Amino acid sequence: MSLPPRTLFVGESKTADLWRVSEWRKIVAGLVSAGSLLRVLNAASVDGTHVVRPVPFTCVASSAEMPINVNINTASNLPQSASADSSFNPIFAYVVAAVDQRGHVFAFDIPKNKFWLVARSGVSAVCMTFNSVRRREIILGLSDNSIHCYNIDTNLLVARLPAYHKSAPLAISVHPTLPLAISNSSTESILWDTEKWERKRVLMGAGPGVQQASFSKTGDAIVTAFNDGSILIWDTFTVNLRWKISLDRFAANLEQQPLGNSISGNDRTSQTRFHVYQNRTSYFSTSANDEYLVYGGIDSSVTVWNLIEKRLVHEIVIPDFKKRIISQIEFLGNSNVIAVLSSAGQLVLIDVEKAKMLGQFKGKHLFRSFSVSHDGSVMTVVLMDVKYSLRLIRVDHMFRPGKEKREEREDEDEAEDLHQKSPPSSPIKKVKVQPPQTKTFYEMIEAKENTTLLNRRKLLKYLKHYGSYPDDYRTMIWRFLLKLPENRDAYEILLEKGIHSSVKDFRKKFPLKSDRIAKSMERTLSCLAHWSPIFEDLDYLPGMVFPIVKLFVNDMFSGFEVIMTILLNWCQKWWEYYPNPPIECLAIIEDLLKLHDPHLLSHFVHLQITSQVYAWPLLQTLLTEILSKSEWLRVWDHLVTNPPAFLYYIVTSYLIQLRVSLLDATKMQDIAFTLSRVNGGVSVDKLVVAAYRMHSGTPDSASPVTFFEAFKPVLRGQYPIFNAYPEFIVNYQSKMKERIRTDEIEYLRRRKLADEVSKLSDELKKDKQAWESADWKMNEMVETWWESMMGAEDSHNERLARLDAQEKEQRVRALKRIAEARKSFVQLQANNTHAHALNLAKAVGSNRNTLETQTDLETLDTQFKRVENEWMARKEEMLAARQELSKLDQTRAERFVWNARRVGVPPETANSMGTAAMDATDEYISHAFQTERLRAARSEGLRDPSLSPTRIKPRAWSPALLGQSRHRRMEVDASEYNSDGTGVSPVRSELSVNVDRYSEGSPTRSVRFDV
Questions:
Q1: pLDDT score for 476
Q2: pTM (predicted TM-score)
Q3: Cα angle 982-986-991, degrees, rounded to a multiple of 5
């Protein structure tokens, strides 16, 4: 089932649906099995028809398989026959990303049926790939040499890597399981850590430069291709070289230029170099299981290696890509099928395991680049002529068996029409794809009525006008004229028989510089030997087939059938008298000479030179020894266009063109030398014209056409049996050669055995002689050896003694240094300890002094408070005493006045005397109290004795000051004034201060005042 593709304009909006819902359900259910699924135009539309503001796409990428959660079983418009298969087909579980020239990044999510604009980088992208670890991230290589990473879900820039590349990155490869990526430019390849987004390793291309570097599909290896024609395969984890492949021999085969003017059995070629082609998307690709490596960097050929067995498998040449290079090559999913894109936009599918073509894309448009889905079922292509257009094409029906047949579709505006066919220009070493009824190249052209492409009459007219066919189309014209049967199965059977025993020494006899041509010669000669025994031992057969092999080196299947056709038609009756020359064929040349140049023939007869000398050497090499490459090709253009008998006209015409030199020769050696020279002054144009003139002027009775059969193409299906030779002679000769070969093998075996026995005998004799000659020398040798050993032992002992003395001296010095170092260390440690102890003592003393001072102050304050309290108590007592004394004095004064009055003293005098006595008593008491305070204060170190006891503070004191006097006593005597003359008992005040000596252990201080 197929549907016309939907056209989506992504330049009109930032997001939209990919398909209508009904179309999407049919597509993801797998109901559309072939053809184009979607057409994307990076432009805006006017009225749905005209395209405005187109922007070309630069690259496209497909993601790995994405997890899906889609259920389309509820679709109501699916066909009833598809209801059972209406689940989501996992081949569409992926996302496509594309970047245009302005740096716009688009994401096309097929499971979600949606596209959206992810980002605008502002710089055109050169390459792009999806991150295999975080599958919703895309990595872009931009033209400004930088690398960006975007998340397609959040539309955010994840990382922007610096521009470490010296030129724009051409490709990016990611590891399938690890966060690693390789970006490749023309000058270097860089290994990145996509987890930390930092550079890990740089692979420089040095002089030749790097073509491509990428991980294998399993990630176990890193494959790198260089411009000098070497491919290196490294281990990903150890970075050890696994295998090195050199492409020099493949490149040399494509650009050989002859040094001389002849085509001979020797491969005389000039040295070539490996050409580098730019603007490629990829040079190589590896299969899913890392079994095969395909390389497409040499012209239009694809080279296949087996990485497990480390051997070359195929050399596949695609003739449709002639004069073109391969710009991109990729494996499709887990299969062994590759998609190959040429620089001209041609896209083909090839099975590399069987070397056969599976299909080719045909249509109105050519392709610029492509990207394959995770399983290879869907391909996204960018068109070459419509660069702003993307196409999603389903291609799994072309290489997977069991798929339903594709329905042919012709759309007016659609370009993709996939044709599954195997054209005649199929690659080398591939089995036949077409069914048994498929027509050959000749039949396909001749079957067209009134064709304007190609026919024999037009070719002959063209050839007579221009003299030769174009070099680019010569092989195709020869295939058409010779009506090749294309019996590929039969050819494969001959190839499978391997190298024939008669060809094993070919490279020794004919050393060729080109290994590819040598291998092609071995295969061709082996196939001919397997086809017919007559070709086993023809010494001139390599010279016959060499120019044809060299012409068809890129398509040896066609080259072998061309050789077979020439042997069956142009070499008729050559081996009827084997091993003698074909007498009847040579007689025809004599008849032609007799008819057209009897004088030359009579000269040969006069010199007794037969046609075996002057004609057979020309025939048996098919003129390869006397013509240069271009001349031989021009001559054989005429030969394959005309009947086989035309060869004899060419040979006769060549002899006539050399008649002057031949008539001048008088010896057989001179004639043989003249006929063996390369183009001895003969013009090919005159040669061909003379041959045509001779052909038209020869009567039927002498014409070779009446003797030889007309051209008969090789039968289709199977190659014919060739036995036009004396079978008994060939069989006998084969048996004799086989017996001789067996005898030679047996002789060589016996000779080898005899040589081994003789060699062994000689060795035994030599051993005996050597033993006998060495026996008498043994004692001398032993004595000499013993003396040398003793001398060596003595010298060794001396050396040991010197070494011991040096070692002891070094040890003593070391011990001294150790002792000095230890002593200085101990002294330093002691000094540090002493200094630390002093510091501790100072700290302890300071802390102790501070504590003692604080304690003394507290004690002194306590004592002063007690003294103050005592003074206050004494003051109160003294005040009370003074009051009592005042009362007593008052009483005494009153008594004194009374007594005075009684004795007759006047009252005024008595009163004044009483008052004076009271005042004198008060003044005395006050004076005595102040005198006692002054004496007590000065004896205890008080500053101001006039202050009250609460305000008296100690002077600076010390334990020595306190220790000068532990006990002081002060007494103040006052006489009591008695007014009556009897006297008053004195008032005594005693001040006693006791201070205990300062003790270091427990400093205490006691002060006592007694009044």
A1: 85
A2: 0.44
A3: 180
